[in-house]
Design a protein that fits this description.
InterPro entries: Pra-immunoreactive, RDD
Strand order of the largest sheet: 1-2
Keywords: Cell membrane, Membrane, Transmembrane, Transmembrane helix
Strand content: under 5%
Structural class: mainly alpha
Main location: membrane
Radius of gyration: 36 Å
Subcellular location: Cell membrane
Membrane topology: Multi-pass membrane protein
Number of strands: 2
């Protein structure tokens, strides 16, 4: 018989009917979409990392917690961006004159010029006075170059000649260690040994990126800083 026990058992052993694509079993509620106000666009997936114009790979947060660049796009300075050798020489002369003017009252106070001009035989006083004057000059020059480069990327001479110190790898502002390293190289080493100071400055004459030895030690370059050029120190 069609309705016998065998038919029932046969029907119970049949696999359940799979709904066709788009067909929903009875009793199942459709998945509700998130509510949004009339006219509100659909939610979009989050943008890829760095889509907000940041310099780092994490959506605008640079690596190692460094602050974002403050003077436009960071990029390695090219040959057209580098300051001329004459501009660097002019800035160095201006800074040397300024430091000498600051040192004049110290020299007059510390050094007994009568003993320097006409020292007594075997008198170490004149040598001691000259040493103190040299140490004072080195200390003042170091602090001047360090703080000015750290804060502005420029000394007064560089401001006058419109040039600026930046990182060689990406054109960003230098940090305290770089500012101290380059300043120590040409004030301390240059003050202790004049030949080192001369070689340091002369290196820009043949270097491809017009770097002095103190630039190479601190990984910096000197670039043009005219109107319209990016200034990574603008918000320090």
């Amino acid at each position: 018989m069609a309705g016998g026990p065998g038919a029932d058992l046969h029907g119970m052993t049949q696999p359940p009917h799979d709904p066709a694509p788009g067909e929903r079993p009875s009793g199942e509620r459709p998945q509700e979409e998130p509510w949004r106000a009339p006219g509100e666009p659909e939610a979009q997936p989050p943008p890829y990392p760095g889509a907000y114009g940041g310099q780092g790979p994490y959506g605008g947060v640079p690596e190692h917690g460094a602050p974002p660049d403050r003077g436009g796009d960071r990029r390695p300075p090219g040959a057209a961006d580098l300051a001329s050798r004459w501009a660097r020489l002019g800035a160095g002369i201006v800074d040397s004159v300024l430091i000498s003017l600051v040192m004049l009252p110290i020299w007059w106070t510390v050094v007994d010029w009568s003993r320097v001009a006409d020292p007594a035989p075997n008198a170490p006083v004149a040598d001691r006075d000259r040493l103190l004057a040299n140490l004072a000059a080195i200390a003042i020059a170091f602090v001047y170059y360090w703080l000015m480069h750290l804060r502005f990327g420029q000394t007064l001479g560089k401001m006058l000649l419109r040039i600026r110190v930046v990182r060689a790898d990406d054109g960003g502002a230098i940090d305290a260690g770089q500012a101290a390293g380059r300043s120590a190289f040409y004030t301390v080493l240059g003050g202790v040994c004049g030949c080192i100071g001369l070689l340091d400055i002369a290196w820009i004459l043949w270097d491809e990126r017009k770097q002095a030895l103190h630039d190479k030690a601190a990984r910096t370059v000197v670039v043009k800083a005219g109107p319209g050029t990016p200034n990574p120190y603008a918000r320090r």
